[in-house]
Amino acid sequence: MICQFFILSSKGDHLIYKDFRGENSSDVVRVFYEKVTALPGDQPPVVMNHKDVYFVHVKQGGLFWVVTTNSASSPFTIIDFINKLCSLVKDYCGTLSERSVQLNFALIYELLDEVVDYGYIQTTSCDVLKNFIQTEAVSSRSFSLFDLSNVALFGAETQQSKVAPSSAATRPIHQREQSHTEIQRLCKFRVCVQGMLMKVDVEGEIRVKCYTPRCSEMRIGLNEEFSIGRSQLRGYGAGVRVDECSFHQNVKLDEFESNRILKLCPSQGEQTVMQYQLREELPCAAPFRLFPTVERDASGRLLMYLKLRCDLPPKILFVCLICPSLSQELSSPDQSAELKPQSRVVVWSIPKVNGGTQLSALFKVDVPGLCSSSLLEVAPVGLSFEVPKWTCSGLQVRFLRLSPVYSPAGERWVRYITHSDSYTIRI
C-alpha cells in the first residue's frame, strides 16, 4: 500500500507531491531529504525508515522518486512500481529531467490519479492509460533557428533528413506524428581481475520501444546460429551462445527453435522482450585492459601508475581509484583528474579513446604516515564506460518487421549499447 509519492530534485526542490491516504504529514519530504544528505557516500540505501514511516526511493534522471509506506508493504513490489512509473513518465514526457517534470506536472498528476487509487496500484500499461490521459505533453527541448542540419538549398531534403533523428526516442507519446519502433540491445559487462584470475559475467537484454498505432504483430529475427547452453550449437559459422535466456510472457516462440524469430504483439511504450546471461567464456576479448602499479618513492609519497589499453572506441570512460591527495601527470591535455576528499577517490576522466591506443596517468599522493603495509590498503581500480554499436555477446538483430505494413512506413531502427556494471581490477 502506498501512502505518499513525491519527486525531489538533487538539491531538494519539491517538484511533485501526492498524498493518497492522508495518514502522514507533508513533513516527510523534509525528513527524507535530511536523511539522504546526512548519509556518507553517493548511494544511500533504497529503503529507510523514520519512526513508523518507511521511505522507498529510486534515483533516475538526477531526481529522487520516493514512496512512503507502512511496514506491511513489500519493498520489492514498490521498487518495481517506481521503476515502471519512471518508464511511464519517460514515455509520456519524453525525458526524465527536472525541467521535463516541471513542464509536465499536470500530466504527471493525471498519471498518478489513474495509476494509483487510494494507495492501491491499478495499472502501469500504456495501452490502458492512453484511453484516459487527456493532457498533452510539453517538450523540454526548445526550438532553435540555428538547427538547420536537415535542410539543404531551397529547403530540399538532405540525405541526413531521411535518417531517424537521435531525438526521436525522447519525444513524448502525443508528439510522435509518425509511427516509431526502436529495439535496444543492452549489455552489462561485469569483470573482476585478481592476479591472473579473471571472472567475466555478461547480462544482456532486448528492449522494444513501440509507438506504432494498431500494430498487430512484430517479428524480430536473431542470429540463425544463436544457441542457449552448450549442447545446442547451430549453424556452420561461429556460434553465438548464451548460458541462460528468458522471454517476456507475451513473446511467441513457435518459430524460435527453427528460425530464431521472436513474435509478439507490442504494447505502447517500452518493454523488455528478452534477457540473457553469459559467464566465463566470451566470444571476444574484454574491451579494456588496465595495468595498475602502486609503489612508494624515496620521499615517502605514494606513486600510482595506470596504463590503459583500449581495443574499442567508447564515448565516455571513467577510471576510479581511491587515494586522499595528489599531483598528476596525464598523457593527453583533454584528460582530467578530480580528487574527492569525502569519498577518498580520484576520478580520471577520458572523454574519448580511439581503438588500439594506449593511455597512461601518474598520480603522486601525499599520505601521512605511509608505510609498506599501507600499499595493501589501496582499493581496486574500477572502470565505468559506455560502448555504442558493439555487443560483447555477438547477438545481432537480423530484421525487424511489423504487420500490418503502414503507408508511409514508420521509423524503425536498432541500437546496440554495452556499458559497464562492475569492471574491477584488484591491485
From TrEMBL:
**UniProt subcellular location:** Membrane, Coated pit
Q: Is Cytoplasm among this UniProt entry's keywords?
A: no
Indicate yes or no for the key word Thylakoid. Answer: no
Provide this UniProt record's keywords sorted from A to Z: Coated pit, Membrane, Protein transport, Transport
One GO cellular component term, please give it.
clathrin adaptor complex
Q: Which residues form the MHD domain?
A: 176-426
GO biological process annotations for this chain's record? intracellular protein transport; vesicle-mediated transport
Q: What domain of life is recorded for the organism?
A: Eukaryota
Predominant localisation class: membrane
Bilayer topology reads: Peripheral membrane protein
Report the InterPro entries cross-referenced here.
Answer: Adaptor_comp_med_subunit, AP2_Mu_C_sf, AP_mu_sigma_su, Clathrin_mu, Longin-like_dom_sf, MHD
Q: Which family does it belong to?
A: Belongs to the adaptor complexes medium subunit family.
The protein, known as: MHD domain-containing protein
Species whose genome carries this gene: Periophthalmus magnuspinnatus
